[in-house]
Predict the 3D structure of the following.
Amino acid sequence: MLLDHDIDGPADAPAVVLLHSSVCDRRMWQPQWQPLLDAGFRVLAVDFRGFGDTPAPAETYDNAADVIALLDMYGIGQVSLGGASMGGRVAHELAARWPDRVGTLVLLCAALRGHPPTPAIIAFSDSEDALLEAGDVDAAVKLNVDTFLGPRATDETREQVAAMQRRAFEVQLAADDVASVQVDTELSAITARTLVVSGAHDVDFFGDIAARLTAEIPGARHTALDWAGHLPSLEDPAALNPLLLDFLRG
C-alpha cells in the first residue's frame, strides 16, 4: 500500500520527512510546512495506515518499511527524519534498521516499543478503551485532546487535533484489528545526529522515554521544553520551529 502523503520543494534539495503522532495525521505538520520550504528543504509528510487519507491495513504491515518504499519511489536517498509520539517511534526504528538513510533525526515526545508503562499512561489507556467500548467516541476524542495538549494550545489547535483524532477513530473502528510487524531494533545502531525533545506538561511516560532515548542513542542531544505538552509542534509553532530548523541546518 502506498501511503497518502504531501511532498513539495525542489527535487535536488535536502529532504525532510515528517511522521505524525497517533493522535493526529499528516495535517499536524502544517505549521512547519512553509518554514521548512522557505529554509530550502524538500518536505514529505505521510499518513500512516489507518490515519488521515490512508486506508486501514487489511493485512500485517510495517510502518517503517512503508516510509522507505515511499522514499524509494521518489528516488530519495538520505533524509532528515522528524517524528512525533508514535511517529517518533517509527522514526527511530527506521533509523536503526536503515542507518544509511537517515542523516538527522528529531524525536518529539517519541514513543518506544516495550518501554514499561507508568500508572498515568495505564490510566489513560484504560479510560480510552472503556469509552470506545461504550461507543462514546466524542468522550474518547476529548480525553485525547485534554491529555496530550499542553497549556499553550489554542482553542483552534484543540479543534484541529480533535478532528484528526476523530478521523483516526472513524477509520480504525470500522476496520478489522490488524497488527503491525514488530522488528527488534537497537537504539545503539542509530548513526544519525539526533535531537530528543520532551515536554514538561506531557504524560510522565514520555519523559521517561526521552531520557532513555538520550542515553541509548549515540551522541543524542536532549532538549526539555518547560512550556510543552505532548504535541509541541502544534501547541506553539513559533517556539518550536526555530529549534527544529536550527538542528536540521546543523
Q: What stands out?
A: The CA atoms of residues 196 and 222 lie 5 Å apart. The beta strands are 5-8, 15-19, 42-46, 79-84, 102-108, 193-199, 221-225. The chain has one domain: 5-249.
